Task: structure prediction
Amino acid sequence: MTKKFACKDIGMQCGFTAEAKDENELMQKIAKHAKEAHGMNKIDDATMKKVKAAIKSA
Result:
């Protein structure tokens, strides 16, 4: 089952979307995007909770 994420789903004004075969792969893509586009070297706990809640299965 594919996992999907969109920055807009956690309230960001950002068009980034990603999908992957599992949550681990998806989290790697999200972390890379967060660092490159949003300057986040580490995703804080509150944001991580939002991210995990926004991940959808397709």
